[in-house]
Design brief:
13 strands, Alkaline Phosphatase, subunit A, alpha/beta, 512 residues
Length: 512
């Protein structure tokens, strides 16, 4: 008998953020999305639902993925709650392994969980990994640039598209007859590093077109614009790779029996207030879902979504009860509704957070613990250790007279200084220009210490430039959001709140 349960295709790109042309209709032309044309993501959104308030549970890849795979807050995933030093706890159920137990054919290509121990364990590890054609897609701009002299620009890119599609074909070929599948496509090319100048050379994106379109906390200078431009090129590569998967499903006649969800694990890397931060640039992501006859087409949904909600959603779409250990809530009622804008009246906020990312390489290697609550109008952040450096050890560069490492070294070596921000030309430029009057405030906002509480009124301050936590007129709002955040953290037994001797402050969570 044919298995009529839906296939599940989850396209989940490293460090993708919210970069797709589908969001231009929401943002207008004053953001980097004005430069993009992402027809494949846009097709999913157009033929399904586009989410305007999708956020990751943590702006760091391993804790975010741990949360999504288990349908739990990241602090509920053992040592999966950290990046460096992550270890998977096999006693925690993950949705792909639960689906496999229920008869699904599961697999992934590129990155599913973490380089932790054991690698990609919650998706089955090497047993369910399909990459016979290789993994060069993760170095897209470098590999394509190398192949341009022989194959031309489009031919060089096509080699990598073919690799992705051949890996997907290998997964499909291994599927038993009449069996539904659950596939995770996890390209990593949007993670650092990228070939400098590739945004223009490979994709025709002009850095000067970004002038006036960057967030106000980034210097609007050529080096930064080119850096963003190169990143946008990688986003276009993700979209093109996604298109190959859609085309293959269409050829097989299985496109319309597949729940397709596309998103990413946090925001842009190597930029102040992006990855590893609880601001929008770090936590807000693209999200679209397509499943004909189940998800009404052409909808824009404003419900607040934490991506950990996808685990119970996939379970429920497969006709299964979400596991009792999952603390997230299924999105299926939102997806299948015919309603636009706000569907579920309870989905008015998300809670995000972080603990240890890379660490600052000091002997104690302590984390930088933060939790936040984001609503339509406000972002409230609680910094539990404001004496620590959010982006890691400054190595003396908090003194503007200290001579920094070379520009090229700062572009290449993340651990030289402020190691919780990826190495990048933007990081290098800001460090080298940090003493300049027009840069100093932006540098302090991105690299300096944070107060214990931050509150931003996004109605008048969409780039979260002015912390109003201490202003009298916001006292009631600050208290209400603080109480709401603490209520969720207490209910969900966050060690930061319920453990006097918090586990994240000691071994093994601080081990290098």
């Amino acid at each position: 008998m044919s298995d009529k349960r839906p296939n599940i295709l989850f396209a989940f790109a490293d460090d993708w953020g919210r970069y797709a042309s589908a969001y231009r209709q929401i943002e207008g032309d004053n953001t980097p999305n004005a430069l993009l044309d992402t027809p494949n993501f846009d097709r999913i959104a157009r033929e399904g639902a586009l989410f305007t308030n999708a956020f990751v549970p943590a702006p760091s890849c391993t804790p975010c993925r741990s949360s999504i795979l288990t349908g739990r807050y990241f602090w509920q995933t053992g040592r999966g709650a950290i990046l460096q030093g992550a270890v998977w706890d096999p006693s925690i159920p993950s949705y792909p392994l639960l689906l496999e137990e229920a008869g699904y054919h599961i697999g992934y290509t590129y990155k599913a969980w973490s380089p932790g121990v054991p690698r990609d364990a919650p998706y089955g590890g090497d047993r369910t990994r399909y990459a016979p054609a290789g993994t060069k897609f993760g170095e897209f701009s470098f590999v394509a640039t190398e192949n341009v002299p022989q194959h031309g620009v489009e031919g060089a890119k096509q080699i990598l598209y073919d690799e992705s599609r051949q890996n997907f074909d290998a997964f499909l070929d291994a599927r038993p007859p009449d069996t539904s599948f659950c596939y995770w496509w996890g390209p990593t090319n949007t993670h650092r590093k990228w070939q400098r100048g590739s945004g223009k050379a490979l994709w025709g994106l002009d850095p000067d077109d970004l002038k006036g379109r960057l967030p106000a906390f980034l210097p609007d200078v050529h080096d930064v614009r080119e850096d963003v431009c190169d990143y946008l090129g990688e986003c276009l590569a993700v979209d093109a790779g996604l298109g190959g998967l859609l085309e293959r499903l269409e050829e097989l006649g299985e496109l319309d029996n597949t729940l397709i969800v596309a998103s990413g694990d946090h925001g842009i890397p190597g930029f102040p207030r992006g990855k590893c931060n609880l601001y929008n640039l770090g936590c807000e992501v693209a999200l679209a879902a397509r499943w004909p006859k189940h998800i009404p087409a052409g909808r824009t949904v404003n419900d607040f979504v934490n991506l950990m909600d996808l685990a119970p959603t996939f379970m429920e779409a497969a006709g299964l009860e979400p596991h009792s250990d999952m603390t997230a809530r299924s999105l299926l009622n939102v997806l299948t509704s015919s309603q636009d804008e706000q569907v579920d009246p309870e989905r008015t906020f998300v809670v995000t957070g972080r603990e240890r990312h890379v660490g600052d390489a000091r002997e104690d290697n302590l984390p930088y613990p933060q939790r936040a609550i984001r609503t339509k109008d406000f972002l409230y952040i609680r910094n539990f250790t404001p004496d620590r450096w959010p982006m890691g050890d400054p190595r003396g560069l908090d003194d503007p007279t200290t001579e920094p490492p070379s520009f090229d070294d700062l572009c290449d070596d993340t651990r030289l200084v402020y190691p919780d921000m990826d190495a990048s030309p933007t990081k290098a430029w800001m460090i080298h220009h940090r003493a300049e009057t027009q840069v100093q405030r932006l540098f302090d906002m991105g690299f300096g210490k944070f107060p214990a509480e931050e509150l931003y009124d996004l109605r008048v301050d969409p780039h979260y430039l002015n912390n109003v936590a201490e202003e009298a007129q916001y006292k009631e709002v600050r208290q209400q959001l603080s109480d709401q955040l603490m209520s969720v953290l207490t209910e969900q037994e966050d060690p930061r709140i319920v453990e006097p001797d918090c586990r994240f402050e000691r071994s093994p969570f601080t081990d290098i």
